[in-house]
Design brief:
Length: about 475
């Protein structure tokens, strides 16, 4: 039973194979001992009443034992049942004993009291062995004064109604076998259909992995199989996106590392060819090499931050931070960078801002990334950088607004995706990691990082932190 089809087949039919025969046996026992026995006792009651009327016309049978025995044998033979006679006190008078006759059973005290007032009594003696299960009826024999002078007992084994029982047994047996055959057929069909759907799902998944379109059969799958197929399809899409991201990462790495490494190599070659003998040229080359190395550091920092975010949950070292002290310290270096580029600098920090429980170093990385982009993509000498910090309800807003080249609506949908570099002037270089890492840090603080921009009109990035 290694195949799924055989296991499904067994799971479908095994309960029925066990239950149907058991139900058939229970049904047969109920019919034989309850329905059929009830009908038999009613028939015996009518037979006993009739024989009691005959006995009332032959009262000598309760005086003369020979006549009583003759009456019992003749009436028993005519009715094909066992007939016995009892006295008015309920004691045995004449009991005809045959080889298969049931044991004599005198009426109980309760039954005797009912017989004395003219009521017929019936009983069923049940047994696990059907051959020993009997039904019997006691009918009172009354004289002209309606006094009890004797009792007629009519008895019959239930298995003597063999013809009817045989028909019932055959009917139940046939029904049980038919149900079993139907169950096996239906179970086989259901197991086969389920395994076929699974085979189709497997085939469709294999085709999807090779870029084949979804077939019509897949579209008509049951909900559960369709859900499994859709889940695999989503996984395949994510794998494809991951592969594309990997390719972009490699291309970006080559692009970003190529320029500084090329400059470093050129400077090294110049030094090897004797440039080190001229102090001024040597100093210029060394400063250039140092600058190229400095430009590589942010790239490495971003890659390290990205790896930390992907490999495990971002770890924050939170502490209550006074924004009125912390934020100006962060802005000093960036204000000087903006002034060197001849950009207008505006700070609007609301006084007495409440402290925020945050990782100051991580949030400094966020603000630095946003300010670096704002300064980088604002034209020299004709732009403005505006920094806003204020309380809004239960949040602190830190906004950075520039009048630079702006971001197109197409790029706005993906600017926070790792490795994304847009098509306009806002994203001509870089790894495409800064904004992705910034959003990850803000999200880890339970805050929000939003952006509003139009191409050619500047950009506004807003950081919301809860109090």
């Amino acid at each position: 039973m290694k195949s799924l089809r055989s296991q499904l087949l067994v799971s479908h039919i095994l309960p029925l194979v066990i239950l149907l025969p058991l139900l058939g046996l229970i049904l047969l026992y109920v019919i034989e001992t309850q329905v059929l026995l009830a009908g038999l006792t009613e028939d015996l009651a009518r037979q006993a009443t009739f024989l009691a009327e005959l006995a009332a016309e032959q009262q000598d049978i309760f005086v003369n034992r020979d006549e009583g025995e003759s009456f019992a044998r003749e009436t028993g033979a005519q009715s094909q049942r066992y007939v016995s006679l009892y006295g008015a006190d309920g004691n045995e008078w004449v009991v005809v004993v045959e080889d298969d006759a049931p044991d004599a059973a005198e009426p109980s005290a309760t039954e005797l009291e009912a017989l004395k007032v003219g009521r017929v009594q019936t009983r069923a003696v049940l047994s696990v062995d059907l051959a020993q299960t009997t039904a019997e009826a006691f009918a009172p024999v009354l004289n002209a004064q309606q006094r009890l002078i004797g009792i007629v007992r009519v008895t019959e084994h239930i298995d003597r109604v063999n013809a009817r029982l045989t028909q019932i047994r055959l009917l139940i047996l046939g029904s049980t076998l038919g149900a079993l055959v139907l169950a096996v057929g239906l179970g086989t069909y259901l197991a086969r259909r389920t395994s076929q759907w699974l085979e189709r799902v497997t085939y469709a998944i294999g085709g999807l992995a090779h870029g084949e379109p979804i077939s019509e059969a897949t579209e008509r799958m049951p909900i559960e199989f369709r859900a499994a197929f859709d889940a695999v399809g989503d996984l395949q899409t994510r794998l494809r996106e991951s592969e594309e991201t990997r390719k972009r990462l490699l291309a970006n790495l080559v692009h970003e590392l190529g320029r500084p490494l090329g400059a470093l190599q050129a400077a090294i070659h110049a030094l090897q060819q004797g440039a080190d003998r001229e102090p001024a040229l040597r100093e210029e080359l060394l400063q250039g090499m140092d600058g190229q190395v400095e430009r590589l550091k942010p790239l490495l920092d971003n890659l390290a931050s990205l790896h930390g975010g992907l490999s495990s949950a971002l770890t924050l070292h939170r502490a209550p931070t006074d924004l009125n002290t912390w934020l100006p310290q962060i802005l000093v270096g960036w204000r000087e960078a903006a002034e060197q580029k001849h950009l207008a600098w505006v700070e609007e920090i609301q006084p007495n801002l409440p402290p925020v429980n945050m990782d100051a170093n991580r949030m400094a990385q966020v603000i630095g990334n946003l300010l670096s982009n704002a300064i980088k993509y604002t034209p020299e000498g004709s732009g403005k950088i505006r920094v806003l910090a204020e309380r809004r309800d239960n949040e602190i807003l830190i906004a950075i607004h520039d009048t630079g080249v702006g971001i197109s609506q197409q790029d706005m949908e993906q600017i926070f995706d790792p490795f994304y570099r847009g098509q306009n002037a806002r994203f001509p270089q870089g790894m495409g990691l800064g904004l992705a890492i910034a959003r990850e840090i803000v999200d880890a603080h339970g805050g929000r990082l939003c952006a509003v921009s139009e191409l050619g009109t500047g950009s506004r990035f807003e950081v919301f932190l809860g109090l």
